[in-house]
Specification:
Shape: globular
Oligomer: single chain
Radius of gyration: 21 Å
Mean pLDDT: 90
Largest sheet: 6 strands, parallel
Order of helices and strands: HEHEHEHEEHHEHEHEHEHEHEHHE
Strand content: 5-15%
Helix content: 25-40%
Low-confidence stretches: 353-368, 374-378
Number of strands: 12
């Protein structure tokens, strides 16, 4: 998933510090490529298509042959899926580091244990375990945040989209992302709508921009319609839909915003690559495992229920059948967290209407190996 690729970006910087003269390459599928494109710590990004069935087998044999010809010294498989294991083995690298996985560990020269239990340990730390054999110290959020470079032209495209929706250029923006990676992480649309309306009603200068994945455009439109119905006529235009944003454009949009609100999905972690205040909505997952990984000084709030024994879960079946870990999270809880995050970013009180304002916010072998990272959306 996109979030998993975002979580690998701190490791890129750590590898560059440890091996400043190494050639660092990153192999990634097309959908998540914008996350690492333009990363100044990488020498190259190798983008491969997401394919299935026989086409994938043929493509992977070709990719594996090309990797083998490149003669990488070390391959690190951050993903741990079948394709990652397969390509790591096909690369022929003398050191291939990955997780202990039943039936596939033999494809690595060094397999690192990864408990299958859902632990309250951040995914960045779990991935960092793969760097231990290379003599790299544990991560520090302040030194090793997630990163994503801004694509040239993305900011201009975002500004044009906002202008087309009649959003004033100086308006404080709240980005409300209504999509989720799966139904188990989807907050009810009515709660999103209530949140959007409440945030505008509290501060009439605000504009809430609704975003979603391409497959959930109808859901975002529905949220917008419900929110506008709850607002007086003169404020309805403050809940805006600006069309679809590509991943790099979403990054630029959040950079422009004062606040981002969304569930535990890839866009939340793209938002974490900015200094913008963030409110994460957590149902079956835990903030301890997937909260934004960035400088602790950045304004970040998590909304979750602490009294459900079924959390976290494997997101295959809701034992209660009502998705209570999300449905019982109220709009009021999210609005309160939003005001708190915005106030922290602005250095004001949460009760101040102007609270939402723009946040101002080597040792060892110096040559090191040629390293290929494997991380992609699946």
């Amino acid at each position: 998933m996109i979030g998993d690729v975002v979580f690998t970006t701190p490791a890129i910087g750590a590898l560059r510090r440890r091996f400043p003269d190494a050639t660092l390459s990153y192999l990634v599928e097309t959908q998540a490529a914008p996350v690492v494109a333009g990363n100044q710590q990488l020498d190259e990004v190798i983008v491969i298509p997401l394919t299935f069935g026989l086409r994938r087998i043929v493509a992977d044999l070709r990719i594996g042959r090309e990797l083998r010809q490149r003669g990488f010294d070390v391959v690190i498989d951050f993903h741990g899926g079948p394709r990652g294991s397969w390509l790591a083995w096909l690369s022929g690298a003398p050191r291939r580091i990955g997780y202990t996985v039943a039936g596939r560990s033999w494809m690595y020269t060094e397999a690192i244990d990864r408990p299958r239990a859902l632990r309250a340990r951040h995914s960045v730390q779990n991935q960092w375990d793969l760097l231990v054999p290379l003599g790299i110290a544990p991560p520090d959020r302040a030194i090793d945040p997630v990163t994503m470079a801004e694509t040239p032209g993305a900011r201009q495209r975002v500004e044009r989209s906002l202008a087309a929706a009649d959003v004033p250029p100086d308006a404080p923006l709240v980005v409300l992302h209504v999509s989720a990676g799966n139904p188990f992480r989807r907050w009810p649309l009515e709660h999103f709508a209530e949140t959007a309306a409440a945030l505008v009603a509290r501060d009439a200068r605000r504009y809430v921009v609704l975003t979603s994945g391409p497959s959930e455009a109808a859901a975002a439109n529905r949220v917008g319609a419900l929110a506008r119905e709850a607002l007086p006529a003169d404020l309805r235009a403050h809940v805006a839909r600006c069309g679809e944003f590509a991943l790099d454009e979403l990054k630029s949009l959040v950079e422009r915003a004062t606040l981002y609100i969304g569930g535990d999905s890839g866009p939340l972690h793209v938002a974490a690559t900015t200094k913008t205040a963030i409110v994460g909505i957590y149902g079956p997952t835990l903030p301890a495992r997937s909260a934004p990984w960035r400088d602790p000084a950045a304004a970040t709030e998590s909304v979750e229920l602490h009294d459900l024994s079924c959390r976290p879960c494997d997101q295959r079946v809701c034992v209660h059948g009502d998705f209570r870990c999300l449905s019982r999270l109220t709009a009021a809880m999210v609005v309160d967290a939003s005001e708190k995050a915005a106030a922290k970013a602005a250095g004001t009180s949460p009760d101040t209407p102007a609270a939402v304002s723009r946040a101002k916010s080597d040792t060892g072998d110096r040559r090191g190996p040629d390293v290929a990272h494997f991380g992609w959306q699946s």
